[in-house]
Specification:
The structure is a single chain. The chain is α/β, with parallel strands linked by helices. It is built from 8 helices and 11 strands. The strands form 3 sheets. A 7-stranded mixed beta sheet has the order 7-6-5-8-9-10-11. Strands 1-2 form a two-stranded antiparallel sheet. Strand 10 and strand 11 form a beta hairpin. Helix 3 runs antiparallel to helix 4. The longest helix has 13 residues. The protein binds S-adenosyl-L-homocysteine (SAH). S-adenosyl-L-homocysteine binds next to strand 4, helix 6 and strand 6.
């Protein structure tokens, strides 16, 4: 890396406010005029429940797939998920495409049934094999940073886990490749994602530290596990102009954003503190 400046992203905005309507119910209002996910959140569930987002940026036809098939218990309902998205927006995530993707993906379906009722609290939760499903806020934040308001073509995720973030990514990118090193979790993700019939996710069992040279270059790479540094192979598999977002560190970790500036130059900034499971080499 030839440049390394450290900068804190502002924890921005709240274009989202909760207001009471005439009947005293909470409703969601937004100060922005363009169509945003937050506006979508205010729509009738019945219509938005049936299809994934149709917003323009980065969402291909084949991705407008039905991703939801749920509305069972109040603890896992669409309303609870919308409330989660409002909290994420209040924490500073403002990319409407990302917020809409967070609204569309049924996180509880990626958890074992005993944990499903906790799916929409803002926490990481166990998925077995000493691994976790990432906290919703950090998923949204990382995807927002990766997107940077742009359409994404090929995105690589390291650490599929249960497949949740891959499903979110599938709504903001044309093609999602995701690598998992634990065979049982690779299988779990396959089983979780299969009923959702998402056409643009490719799951790979392997060591993500090596990337996927056969598919590279990627315009976005996202790591869901923290190494002491970002693996070199991943840096070289980024397109010039592409972005990589990764947790870096041991007990103390930071979210690092790396951009490939030219063939031989990468820039790096620290975004905020974070906490992820460790990145390990090899497969099991
Ligand atoms: N993406 C998940 C988070 C999974 S937790 C979500 O949607 O919530 C991080 C995952 O990274 C774990 O499943 C762990 O096994 C995996 N992992 C760690 N090191 C890896 C490596 N070198 N290659 C691929 N996966 C790795």
């Amino acid at each position: 890396m030839t440049t390394a400046k450290e900068k804190r992203f502002p924890l921005p905005l709240s274009s989202v406010v909760e207001r009471k309507d005439n009947a005293g119910r909470n409703r969601i209002a937004t100060s922005v005029s363009t169509q945003t996910a937050i506006q979508n959140l205010g729509r009738d569930f019945q219509s938005s429940n049936r299809s994934a987002p149709t917003t323009d940026h980065g969402i291909g036809k084949q991705q407008r797939t039905e991703i939801l098939n749920t509305s069972e218990s109040p603890l896992v309902s669409e309303a609870v998920r919308r409330a989660m998205v409002v909290r994420i927006a209040q924490q500073g995530v403002k990319d409407g495409v990302v917020l809409e993707a967070m609204r569309a993906v049924p996180r509880h379906l990626f958890l074992e049934s005993g944990l499903a009722s906790q799916a929409y609290i803002d926490a990481s939760l166990p998925i077995g094999h000493h691994q976790t499903i990432s906290q919703p806020y950090i998923v949204a934040r990382m995807v927002e940073i990766l997107r940077n308001g742009n359409k994404l073509d090929n995105v690589l995720e390291i650490g599929t886990g249960c497949g949740y973030q891959a499903a979110v990514l599938s709504l903001v990118a044309q093609n999602v490749y995701s690598i998992e090193r634990i065979k049982a979790l690779h299988e779990l993700a396959k089983n979780n994602l299969r009923p959702m019939r998402i056409a643009n996710i490719r799951l790979h069992y392997g060591d993500g530290m090596l990337g996927l040279p056969q598919v590279a270059p990627f315009d976005g790479i996202i790591l869901a596990a923290a190494g002491m540094e970002v693996p070199q192979a991943l840096l070289t598999q980024l397109k010039v102009g592409g972005r990589l977002i990764a947790p870096v560190g041991g007990r103390q970790q930071v979210l690092q954003l790396i951009e490939r500036v030219s063939d031989s130059e990468w820039s790096s900034v620290v975004v905020e503190n974070c906490h992820f499971v460790p990145l390990h080499s090899g497969i099991i």
